[in-house]
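Hello,

Our lab assistant flagged a job as stuck in the queue for most of the afternoon. It eventually completed. Since we weren't sure the result was trustworthy after the delay, we are filing this so someone can double-check. Below is the sequence as submitted and the structure that was eventually returned. Let us know if re-running is recommended.
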Amino acid sequence: MATPPEPKPFITRTWDYITETQIWKSIFRHGMPDTNRNRVLVVMTNVFLHLHPVKIRKSGIRLKFTWCMGGLTFFLFLVETFTGLLLMFYYRPTVAYAYMDIIDLAEQVPLGIMREIHRWGAHAMVITVWLHMFRVFMTGSYKPPREFNWNVGVILLVLTLLLSFRGYLLPWDQLAIWAITVGSNMARATPLLGHEGPGAQLLVLGDVKLVHAGSDARFALLGGRFVGEGALLRFYVLHCVGIPLIAGILMAVHFWRVRKDGGISGPL
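-- returned structure --
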């Protein structure tokens, strides 16, 4: 006579019940990594394991080859995100309060050093992203099959510069206002998009100019014809929400393609 199987412990039965629920299966699309198939699925469906794969080339962790500029740029982006969120609790993007809020952040608000960390972190991020692009170019890491990821990196470089440019106006002091005035005036000469740029005179519909001082690239940057309340609010929203959101999505694509293209490229 066969003996009945021993009952499973309560913890085991509870765990089995949880892993069989629809909620669990909707979150985890595979079983425990106890088979080769499930181990592969764990790596393929987990973004963090794409960032930290099981195996990488020895050159991929060689400091004199990578310079760690990509990782440092991403780290500084996280620093900027964290400090920026803290600053948003105290900063008001209005002409009446913007400058005084910046002063209070330095003198009155606890941990006011966060504003200085945010500022210097922005400068450092611009430097590291340029050095990262320089390293990628010098090591030939932009060549096939990595040309798509190179273009994603170029877009991220432009977004980093735009983030720095957008954040420059927020202190609302004389240096910021005149710097943005000079910088935005350059947009008037944008080809086809600036009313003083080449090709703008050709964009005419009947007797109406499609690109003029009230509809060109400079007007889109400032939300008006001069640096004022509209420009401050537009710069604030794009600096805190619009550009970081696009940059975050592109960084996820960038990291994913690095792994799909074989990891960090080896020395030539």
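-- support follow-up --
The delay was a queue issue, not a problem with the job. The result is valid. The mean pLDDT is 87. Residues 258 and 264 are 6 Å apart (CA to CA).
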